[in-house]
Amino acid sequence: MKDTKRKLLEWLYITIGVAIAAAPFSFLLDPINLVIGGVSGLGTILKELLQIDTAIIILIINIILLVLGLILLGKEFFVKTVYGSITFPLFIGLFSAIYKALEITPIIDKTIVTIFGSIMMGFGLGLVMRYGGTTGGTEIPQKILLKYFHIPYSVSLYIFDGFVVIFGVIVFKDFSLILYGAIFIYLSGFAVDSVVFSGFNKRAVYIISDNSEKIKNRIIAEIGRGVTQINVVGGYSNIQRQKLVCILSSFEFYRLKKIISECDPDAFYYVVRASEVSGEGFTYER
């Protein structure tokens, strides 16, 4: 009963987070064609080209990506991703309908829209990530690139968002979109990190588990981060175990929490702030 209540609360927070993330897009960004990368930004561009509602475009793109993810990443990933991928465009459609019904005057000042939009969307996405959810979108091709080409999330994120923003500059003939897009990505990332970690976006995670080998293999295969193994002995039990050490970003941390809970619900782990990180996977790629 207690576990069911916890699961229901998780889904409730994920739904609230998706709604919060969708609201600034419908009320602030989309009305003035401010392209901020990702599937949302692509939806704004295609709305202009095809004259089709943005929510429908995002829903179609997410469904295509879900099918691609099902084929290339498997059923488990599909099940975990489908909820956010469908509800996000549905909330966008709902809020856009409210926006039109109320005949709200759009806020033309792109600076204000960028600042408030990025913080609100980042907060919503952070809430979704904190409780193990996802809004789908470019996360699907990012995971495909990681699995088949070993391209880290940090690199593929800039590739996809950069492509969408440049596409927006070409369509709308507005070079300032690059600058606003860069500010939006930075501020939304900071907001996400504030919700997930309440601080700096790199953390060192220390894990002690009876299933450390399974956890290690899944970290390497699913997150693409390196893991250090250390032999440790319990001070009270005198039992020798393997302690895993992994450095990762806020975007990747919620994935690690899910892996730990699935492999060993009784695992002991703690997280500390990494004030500076340098080396492979962070300041350079192999």
Using brief descriptors, characterize the structure shown.
alpha+beta; 10 helices; 4-stranded antiparallel sheet; elongated; 286 residues
Written description of the protein model:
With 286 residues, this protein is an alpha+beta fold. 66% of the residues lie in helices and 10% in strands. It has a 4-stranded antiparallel sheet with strand order 2-3-1-4. Helix 9 runs antiparallel to helix 10. The protein starts with a helix and ends in a 13-residue tail after the last strand.
Compact summary:
The chain has 286 residues and is of the alpha+beta class. The chain has helices at residues 2-29, 38-50, 54-73, 75-102, 110-130, 139-149, 153-172, 176-196, 212-223, 250-263, and strands spanning 202-208, 228-233, 240-249, 268-273. The chain is elongated and about 70 Å long.
What is the beta-strand fraction? 5-15%
On the 0-100 scale, what is the average pLDDT?
86
Along the chain, the helix and strand elements come as: HHHHHHHHEHEEHE
The share of residues in helices is: 55-70%
Q: So how many helices?
A: 10
Largest sheet: 4 strands, antiparallel
Number of strands: 4
Biggest sheet strand order reads: 2-3-1-4
| End-to-end gap | 47 Å
Which structural class matches the secondary elements?
alpha+beta
**What gross morphology would you assign?**
elongated
